[in-house]
Amino acid sequence: MNGADALCDTLLEGGIDTCFANPGTSEMHFVAALDRKPQMRCVLALFEGVATGAADGYARMLERPAATLLHLGPGLANGLANLHNARRARTPLVNIVGDHSSQHLQYDAPLTCDVASLAAPMSHWVRRINDADDVPVAAAESVERSLADGGAVATLIFPADAAWNACSAPPVIPNAPPALPQVSQRRIALATNALRTHGDRVVLLLGAQALKPEARVLAARICDATGARMLAQQSNARLERGAGRVPVLRIPYPVEQARAMLDRASHILLLDATAPVGFFSYPGKPGSGVPEHCAVHAISSSGEDAYQALQAMADDLGIDPNRPVIYQALARPGLPTGALSADAIVQTVATLMPEQAIICDEAISSGRRLLEMTAGAPPHDMLFLNGGAIGIGLPLATGAAIACPDRAVICLQADGSAMYTLQALWTQARENLHVITIIFSNRSYALLHQELAKVGAGRAGQNASRLLDIVEPSLDWCKLAQGMGVEAVAVDTVRALADCIQVALSRSTPFLIEARI
Amino acid sequence: MNGADALCDTLLEGGIDTCFANPGTSEMHFVAALDRKPQMRCVLALFEGVATGAADGYARMLERPAATLLHLGPGLANGLANLHNARRARTPLVNIVGDHSSQHLQYDAPLTCDVASLAAPMSHWVRRINDADDVPVAAAESVERSLADGGAVATLIFPADAAWNACSAPPVIPNAPPALPQVSQRRIALATNALRTHGDRVVLLLGAQALKPEARVLAARICDATGARMLAQQSNARLERGAGRVPVLRIPYPVEQARAMLDRASHILLLDATAPVGFFSYPGKPGSGVPEHCAVHAISSSGEDAYQALQAMADDLGIDPNRPVIYQALARPGLPTGALSADAIVQTVATLMPEQAIICDEAISSGRRLLEMTAGAPPHDMLFLNGGAIGIGLPLATGAAIACPDRAVICLQADGSAMYTLQALWTQARENLHVITIIFSNRSYALLHQELAKVGAGRAGQNASRLLDIVEPSLDWCKLAQGMGVEAVAVDTVRALADCIQVALSRSTPFLIEARI
């Protein structure tokens, strides 16, 4: 058995059976090992940003990591933007990066670069494997680290000689994640004191594990009993929502709107959440979304047991464990009338999306009414561009579809962002995934036109327009999709869009709809 | 005047009038400043790897830098692979990366990451601008650094507040590059002693400036007079070659072939070159391409005056400055007969390429006979994938065409690599560039099949085949190109290929030929 075999075996022992890959020569021994491990599903991406984004989408749905396989520093570099999103989402992910054999680094061959330096900003943990005998321990640690602290990007640098040399070290079975640390009684008391004394001026700010449906039930009971409000943090990886679940409002991204929403609050209690901040900064505007009069207390942090914290708060407040809560009723908006617009697309999707749909939202400025419109849709998951690095939508949908083959994935995708990782469409075709991509074809970085005005820089002139508008030529998304083997149709009316969505839902293959708005 | 204006002005003063950009919110003040500077040509790329690769191609041709404009850490990340190639090519490049305003970093907003750490491995120089008043000095330094040491990737991190705040510092005009340092007499003597005593066992290994046509004339005289051989190093950025120029063989990439070529040599004299190394390492094979009996001496290094070194060597050897040298004769191979194959494509291009064509070579394994076939073509430039990070061809061609609007650019492009940065085709259409892209459509990472065998891992099984073959579905390059506004035709015969090349040459617009082999 060589080091590559040992790595495969350890990943499989750790429950990782899916690898999103774009290998090169330095990874060939690992590729050969994969041939000996038919249990490992290999998914080829034609660009590394697809591999990392798909691994993110996969793990957001299954709550266990996939592996990636990337080629040296440049291959890692291509995957970094979506690793950034995965890191911000605290997605468990074992990111395997091949490197030259240790003895070859001295020659400074053309592809040599500092892989660890590149990996560090987008990883929670980085380790370079020393040699073949180091593989079982290092690989087990990478699996364990990926599941620690609420989810982590664990990057394992795998030199070619550690892959090809014989491994005589004993196998190591990765430990299952330990039980989540409980939140201290001191912090529970801090929270419940605030709730008792300030009641309706308290906000429970929920993120990650505290946003799971069962945690939201507890939060809703606490709010109902104390007059507090529950809100979701701004940037979320995944939200399970829709009819039959406890609804939750999200704090809006614009910092003024966030502050307005929190204006009445005296205390913000963070439960696996971060306080609102401006996505960007603007001259003369505040960077924090927290009003100055508002105290912020971290009650549970990433990797702690947020559910237990909410349970302990409810117990401490003496709340009846059977206290009724209000669940979201089924309420579809109905098909829109009038011309096709961004809002009309969102409304159409909200009206037609099936039960257990997975919505991947990279609609950017076009999706501003998405949460409101889909609030009463059948139960569904929504995955977000939480880290701000555009080009996540198509890969995320790809990974989610591989994770959940029995569910329909609907990717709401801005056109400018779609271009970053359009290669994902090929993987959708290769793997025959049930992904319906709706391109909001507005032929511009529409958000940036708004931002140009917002930073006080006025309207776009000639140079700026050439940088913000995707025209001359316009993109033909049907051809782009068809070129990668994905069926595609362009629509410019609500009726045609609705018909296409229904056709696409009736199949199990990838389908792209270019919605021209 | 704000900091963004000051940056524009300083770049323009430094001779930088082209900016390959994909901006975001944090760059909006710079975008607004570009509106006030119509002299700055802004070229939009729909993915950052296109921007960095195009800036590389531009500067390889004009020997002066372009600027890039990238959006925060993730935007930089997307551009890193081609920055790696530019760094390896020692291309002068001013890489401008926006960042959050300095006061906003404390909030750890979603897009925040360690930009400097990401930039370092792929940059020769990194500087973060402190504030608006720091802009003129920092920008001038970035221009100067980009032109230092034989060409450098100079990364300038530009916080949003440094862009929007008023700049009251005086303008700074970047210094022109100083005269190149001369090579010491000691090293010249070392070289000429070797040439005198070992004559035909000496290799002049030429790279970068020592490969320029006028330098090759000197090297040819030295070789003719002493019996030495001249060779080009393995990885080159640009080679001016063809009829009327001094021909030069390139050391092959496979390390065994490199060693065989150098087997007779006792001394290798490096002139702005690096000694041959294995592109990758293989079990039990040497990493260096230099035979053990061979002494390697660095005569001139990057940023030193290689031409002067060769001149001094010739003078020291008493070589007649008018000693005749043999120039390459015009000799086209003629159109091939038989089926379309990788070699047949190369031969067809060699037969039809016009004078002063710029050939961008990312044909990978399909281009193995390119140098041989085109040796006697009319004078042309050839730009190479020198750093090994695939996805350079289409962007490089884009930048070269912007640099040289009167010349035809022919991009010889492997299909797997083309997918990495296919968004470049849109920029070619937008800018109406005379780029002819020939896709070697073999529907696989063909090189990797060879490499799988070469590392001793045998033939591809099921998992490996799924990672190495780009089939099920095949890519339709015509649709991909047309989707981005580029005219395209697929061919599967030599005749059709030749006809298409001639049609494409007769126009001035981008054209893609999918050559199915």
TrEMBL record, chains A, B:
Gene Ontology biological process terms in this record: small molecule metabolic process
GO MF assignments: acetolactate synthase activity; flavin adenine dinucleotide binding; thiamine pyrophosphate binding
Domain Thiamine pyrophosphate enzyme N-terminal TPP-binding: 1-106
InterPro entries: THDP-binding, Thiamin_PyroP_enz_TPP-bd_dom, TPP_enz, TPP_enzyme_TPP-bd
Residue span(s) of domain Thiamine pyrophosphate enzyme TPP-binding: 387-514
Protein family per UniProt: Belongs to the TPP enzyme family.
Signal peptide: none
Keyword Oxidoreductase recorded: no
Organism name: Advenella kashmirensis W13003
Protein's name according to its UniProt entry: Decarboxylase
UniProt entry keywords in alphabetical sequence: Thiamine pyrophosphate
Gene3D superfamilies to which the protein is assigned, alphabetical: 3.40.50.970
Cited PANTHER family: ACETOLACTATE SYNTHASE LARGE SUBUNIT ILVX-RELATED, THIAMINE PYROPHOSPHATE ENZYMES
Keyword Manganese annotated: no
